[in-house]
UniProtKB/TrEMBL annotation:
This is Uncharacterized protein. Residues 268-292 are annotated as: Disordered. The lineage of its organism: Bacteria, Pseudomonadati, Pseudomonadota, Alphaproteobacteria, Acetobacterales.
Length: 305
């Protein structure tokens, strides 16, 4: 059943809760966080567009059984995944169930396409006329100019439909055409892409930072000092600092402070349904999340789509 919509959020945790995968966000700069999430769930394809007004870092856990293709949609703000920069014009493939760190350095606009591996391989074999296998997960791909323009244009067109004309996505012929065109553009882009840097070198740092996050979550009131943590894990303070700067863009001390604040904020807040979250339904709709006062947040044009 088709499901699409667009929501705006004035709270980072409401935005986090609305994402279709697990993401633990930490804001990296002061200010009032505003965001917008647009989604379309087609029978074989999922499309996302996120717009965020502040830099952040997220610990992401993807759902099982789906490949995600992620890419920046703002020339001025790349995505940084496990310490590897994904600039505008490049894409990164992430595999089912993968966990990784993703951050931005400024206000950003990003896109994602999700589908099963079998769907991608089947379309690839049909369109290319030979055996087709997606590249390694975590690989950054530089797209040919024409392929990049086609893929970004189709993705942006789909997002605009969800935001401004969702009733058109109730028509089966439009859904079929959109799904076919996006998958075909994605297959062509991957087949002709130039492989660049991968993220395998960051695996040790990823594991180390997961352990640090787990230690903080276990006892946010009594987090061991950085020297104590390093002795317990057998790594040097220099290595920990390098990993934090590469993957998170901040020092270990600042990361610990931000994580503690988030855990303590959760402990003091009563459990309630996020004001800006939209529950999945079979209808396409546009929704503007409410603030704590019950009023919809004001969306300021501070980002470039």
């Amino acid at each position: 059943m088709l499901n699409c919509g667009s929501s705006t959020f004035a709270d980072a945790e409401d935005y986090e809760a609305a994402l279709p995968f697990d993401a633990d966000l930490l804001l990296l700069q002061p200010g009032h966080f505003l965001s917008r999430l647009t989604w379309i769930n087609l029978p074989r394809l999922g499309l996302l567009r996120g717009q965020e007004s502040l830099s952040r870092v997220a610990r992401v856990s993807l759902p099982l059984h789906r490949i995600f293709v992620i890419f920046p949609m703002d020339r001025a703000s790349p995505l940084i995944c496990d310490g590897v920069s994904v600039p505008w014009g490049d894409i990164m493939l992430r595999g089912p169930g993968e966990r990784f760190w993703q951050r931005t350095a400024a206000a950003s606009v990003w896109g994602a396409i999700s589908l099963t591996r079998s769907c991608l391989v089947s379309y690839g074999r049909t369109l290319i006329g030979r055996s087709f296998s997606p590249p390694s997960y975590g690989q950054v791909l530089r797209l040919a100019a024409g392929d990049r323009e086609d893929l970004l244009r189709l993705h942006s067109h789909a997002a605009r439909l969800a935001e401004t004309g969702p009733e058109r996505l109730a028509r089966p012929e439009i859904v079929r055409a959109l799904e076919h065109d996006v998958i075909a553009a994605l297959v062509t882009a991957i087949a002709d892409a130039d492989p660049r840097q991968g993220v395998t070198d960051g695996c040790h740092c990823c594991g180390l930072l997961v352990r640090l996050a787990d230690v903080i979550a276990t006892s946010p009131h009594h987090v061991p000092s950085i020297p104590q943590f390093c002795r317990a894990t057998g790594v040097s303070e220099r290595m920990l600092r390098t990993c934090c700067l590469n993957l998170l863009g901040i020092s270990p001390a600042r990361y610990i402070s931000l994580r503690q604040r988030k855990h303590l904020r959760h402990a003091w807040q009563p459990t309630q349904e996020p004001a800006g979250k939209v529950e999945a339904t079979g209808a396409c709709r546009s929704h503007r999340g409410a603030t704590a006062t019950g009023r919809p947040p004001v969306w300021r044009p501070c980002m470039r789509a």
